[in-house]
Design brief:
alpha/beta, NAD(P)-bd_dom, Rossmann fold, 5 helices, NADP, five-stranded parallel sheet, oxidoreductase activity, globular, oxidoreductase
Amino acid sequence: MSGSIKTVALLGYTGNIGPHALNALVANGNSNVTVFSRSAQDEKLPNATFRQIDLASSSVESLAQEFKGHGAVADLTSIPDPTVSIRVVDAAVAASVYRFIPAEFSHSPSNVKARALPLWAGKNLVYQHLTKLADERQLC
């Protein structure tokens, strides 16, 4: 089924990784990318649809409506509040998104020593939630 992912929701475009991720998706044939950003300055992106949204104040239901029809959600955000990331994950599940790519770009989520650092307490909650959903076959 991964070969059938043609629509990708990209969260966190304005960070260091976002523009590179968009370029890579488009270069690899994903012609239907939706960039979700809280900043209206990004609304004229080439090769992508733009949706202005504030993830921190959005409900699971409203995010699920936005994610409907997307085969994947790539979370490139760096929001410190883990409840926001968990809402985004739950919205992806509610919208029947096939693949969720979490914002894990600093270390391996399975590195026990890194996960023990207080700085990663919030990411641990998100990782545990994702692992549970993957074990239940609700997400890939």
